[in-house]
Design brief:
It contains 33 helices and no strands. By secondary structure, the chain is mainly α. Helix 9 (about 245-270) runs parallel beside helix 11. The radius of gyration is 49 Å and the shape is flat.
Length: about 850
């Protein structure tokens, strides 16, 4: 017999077993954690208390420390240095505010002795405290007290002026005070070298003594300029030989500001001088500034040396060029500065340091660029000015070149513009022709900076830095030396090509501007521009495809020839004879260039331009014959017809397509001329269709030209019908339907598997659908009868030849046409029947259809299958 314990005993036994299970579970979990820690790889070394994984292994702790949960990141204390800086900054600000308030508000409540004693004691204490703090290693606290001492010294100066010397001139007192403070703070900074604030503060204070002294003395602007320059020179000396980055940066900023101000003062005085003697004094200031900048560039680092060279070059140009410019009129002053700027190029032989010499050359380039910017707007006016002649073509030959341009520019003040362009063009041309000598002279300036030589392992492995570089002074031009890690520079051929292109463009512009400045006669100006176009064409033909690395020259000649041709063409519109002569010469010149040039791209450009000029000539012919624009339209199509013949002759030559496209644009112009008269428009469209059909004879043009010809013929037919006031739609649709059906039949003959919708659908729909729409609104019987007969014939043909498109289109149109004819009678019968009869008939029909639904569904499927088997 089984013993059953009492409930109390059984409950106690269960509690003991559960306690044992909990203890065993805790033991197993502890063992499991130890095993996981032993199997986990060691974590990388990190900062104490930092857990890289966030929720990974706990950070290592000291022995005996309590275990932390995984992912626990101890809280970091705030950085003591940052907290210290914040506290010191706040403390210094509060003391400064207190000192200012004391000086400005509470000053009057104390006697003269008390005031002096308080300020002296506080200032002296603020100056002595940093020395004590530095000896104890409290550098940050010392910096804060030094800043407070600086503010106190400034307040002392203000207090002395307000109490001890109130009648003293404020500007003079400020000049003396700033000088004294600069000296005192310089001595203080040198005595306590560990402080970073006193010496930069002394540099800031040193900016003002000379400037305020000149201001207080009422000195002229020139003396103020010298004071600014002297201050800038002092800043430059400090920037070069000063100790510490704070001192040097402060001196650089101050010197830049003061030097720029001195240059602006000198430049303003030089440009507004009444004569050479008046420009000599500011010129001396500018020369002194140039010498100072060059002296600083001699010892400055790379970037600062180039900047100093640029400043020195520009200042020297302004100084030397300002003297003769003061004696010249406004139109010629730029030439004086340009000559001085070009003279700076002699720096390559002056033995200056490389970076400083590069800066001076850059200044020369800036001067030349400025002169060109001054002259180029007048050249743009010469090229674009003849556009005004479009509003009054063949009004008569003007007297001179200027009157033909219609420009309001003051040409008398631009007399130096052609000289500027010619001078720069001559220098660039000389560099182009004697390029080896230029390279030899400029080689020292272009020598690459020293680069560490790669070791043998990297050279053998082909490392990027293993490319050979020439040592400094090896005489190798900088644009031919380099490695994979060197900075990419343009090649010598590219630089020479750019020089040649610039010489060509500027020389051409100089000749054009010379004709305007001299106000050449109209005939001479037109002939001269045409001759220039011919010369540019000759250069373009000669240089294209030469392969001598100077492709920029023929490209520039090509662009100049086209631009010059457009300009002289517009200029010739003032006279009928000049227009014929110029455009005829242009057409011949560009056609000859097309024949002679060897490269494909220039040949295409020349051919297109020749076609354009010839098209303009045909338009001139219509105007000479006193034809209206729509009457001259067929005459304009002569050139497109010639382009079609020329395209057939050239066949697959790369020039053929651009020529034909340009002829097509000429045809589009003819269409635009004929828009005002419908009969002539129809004629022009038909002629364009003939030309397109002629182009479609060639297999390579057939896909596009064939469709274009069909569209043009249809459009010509429609325009002709509209001009004849034909209103019935079949006259418009049948010219589309018949060619479409012929094309469809040819398609089916070549491809019997082609769908009848593709072959015949568009053609049939083009006539049947518009006719059906008109027949539904036609009260006569003749049109519906003809439409029904045609639809019946089409339906029978579709059923006979099993053509789905014909059967469906013909059947639908026939049914709708018959419904249209029966509609009046149906309406008449419906009106005579009782009102209850139509609903009854409809219900009966539904009952019959419902009873025979399965049979009707099978009939519909058979009809669908039958139609699907048709093409």
């Amino acid at each position: 017999m089984e013993h059953v314990p009492p409930p109390a005993e059984e409950l106690a036994r269960l509690d003991r077993e559960l306690a044992e299970l909990d203890a065993r579970r805790a033991q197993l979990l502890t063992r499991r954690a130890w095993l996981l820690a032993a199997l986990r790889p060691p974590a990388p070394t990190a900062a104490p208390g930092w857990n890289p994984s966030g929720w990974g292994a706990p950070p290592p702790g000291r022995p005996g420390a309590p275990a932390q949960p995984w992912g626990y990141v101890p809280k970091q204390p705030s950085a003591p240095r940052s907290a210290q800086n914040v506290l010191l900054t706040l403390g210094g600000l509060l003391l400064t505010v207190a000192a200012v308030a004391f000086t400005l508000v509470s000053w009057g409540s104390m006697g003269i002795g008390g005031r002096s004693a308080v300020l002296a004691a506080v200032t002296l204490g603020a100056l002595i405290a940093p020395a004590v703090l530095l000896r104890r290693g409290l550098a940050a606290t010392a910096e804060a007290l030094a800043a407070l001492a600086l503010v106190l010294t400034l307040l002392d100066v203000y207090a002395v002026h307000a109490v001890a010397a109130p009648d003293t001139d404020g500007l003079g007192f400020t000049a003396v005070a700033s000088a004294v403070l600069a000296v005192l703070w310089t001595a203080y900074g040198l005595a306590l070298r560990k402080l970073r604030l006193p010496l930069p503060a002394a540099v800031v204070l040193a900016q003002w003594p000379l400037l305020f002294w000149a201001w207080a003395a009422g000195a002229p602007a020139l003396v103020v300029g010298w004071a600014l320059l002297a201050t800038a020179v002092l800043d430059g000396v400090i920037a070069l030989w000063g100790k510490g980055p704070g001192v040097r940066v402060t001196a650089c900023v101050g010197g830049s500001a003061m030097g720029f101000s001195a240059l602006m003062v000198g430049l303003a005085l030089s440009t507004t001088a009444s004569g050479p003697l008046g420009a000599a004094a500011p010129g001396a200031l500018l020369l002194a500034a140039a010498a100072a900048a060059l002296a600083g560039a001699w010892r400055a680092p790379k970037g600062f040396a180039r900047t100093g060279g640029v400043v020195a070059g520009l200042a020297a140009v302004a100084a030397v060029g300002g003297v003769p410019a003061a004696a010249l009129s406004d139109g010629w002053r730029v030439l004086a500065y340009l000559l001085c700027g070009l003279a700076l190029a002699g720096v390559v032989r002056a033995g200056l340091p490389r970076d400083a010499a590069r800066g001076v050359l850059a200044a020369s380039g800036v001067v030349v660029a400025g002169a060109l910017v001054w002259a180029l707007p007048s050249l743009a006016a010469v090229l674009l000015g003849p556009v005004t002649l479009l509003s009054d073509v063949w009004a008569g030959s003007p007297e001179g070149f200027r009157s033909a341009l219609g420009s309001t520019l003051p040409w008398s003040e631009l007399a130096a513009a052609p000289v500027v362009l010619a001078l720069v063009a001559g220098l660039l041309g000389s560099a182009y022709w004697w390029w080896p000598s230029v390279v030899r002279i400029a080689a020292p300036l272009g020598a690459r900076e020293e680069t560490p030589e790669p070791d043998a392992a990297s050279a053998a492995a082909g490392a990027p830095g293993a490319a050979w570089t020439a040592p400094p002074g090896a005489g190798v031009p900088w644009y031919t030396v380099g490695g994979a890690g060197a900075r990419r520079r343009p090649s010598g051929a590219a630089l020479r090509g750019a020089a040649g292109a610039g010489a060509l463009a500027l020389g051409w512009g100089a000749l054009l501007l010379a004709g305007v400045v001299l106000d050449a006669p109209y005939a001479v100006a037109v002939a001269g521009e045409t001759a220039l176009v011919g010369g540019l064409l000759a250069l373009a033909v000669r240089g294209a495809g030469s392969g001598r690395g100077a492709s920029a020259v023929p490209v520039t000649a090509l662009v100049g020839a086209v631009s010059g041709a457009v300009s002289v063409g517009l200029l010739s519109l003032a006279s009928e004879g000049a227009a014929y002569a110029v455009f005829g010469a242009l057409a011949v010149l560009f056609a000859g260039a097309t024949v002679r040039v060897g490269a494909e791209v220039p040949r295409a450009v020349f051919a297109v331009a020749s076609v354009v000029w010839s098209t303009v000539l045909t338009g001139f012919a219509g105007r000479s014959l006193d034809l209206d624009p729509h009457e001259a339209a067929p005459l304009v199509l002569l050139v497109p017809a010639l382009t079609v013949l020329l395209g057939a002759r050239l066949r697959r030559n790369p020039v053929a397509l651009p020529v034909e496209l340009t002829g097509a644009l000429g045809a589009l112009v003819a269409v635009g001329l004929a828009v005002s008269d419908a009969p002539f428009l129809a004629l022009v469209l038909a002629l364009c269709g003939v030309l397109a059909a002629g182009a479609a004879v060639r297999p390579e043009r057939r896909p596009v030209a064939g469709c274009l010809a069909a569209a043009l013929f249809v459009l010509a037919t429609w325009v002709r019908l509209a001009a004849s006031e034909v209103s019935f739609p079949e006259a418009y649709t049948l010219p589309v339907t018949l060619p479409a059906l012929v094309v469809g039949a040819l398609r089916r003959r070549r491809d019997p598997e082609a769908s009848s919708w593709t072959a015949y659908g568009p053609g049939l729909g083009a006539t049947l659908l518009p006719s059906l729409a008109v027949a539904w609104t036609d009260t006569d019987w003749f049109r519906p009868l003809l439409l029904g007969v045609a639809a019946l014939v089409i339906t029978l043909l579709g059923a006979r030849y099993r053509l789905q498109a014909l059967l469906v289109l013909g059947g639908v149109v026939l049914a709708l046409d018959g419904l249209h004819e029966l509609a009046p009678y149906v309406a008449q019968v419906a009106g005579a029947l009782p009102r209850w009869l139509p609903p009854a008939l409809a219900g009966l029909l539904l009952l019959v259809v419902g009873a025979t639904y399965e049979q009707r569904l099978r009939d519909a499927r058979r009809l669908k299958d039958a139609l699907g088997r048709m093409r």
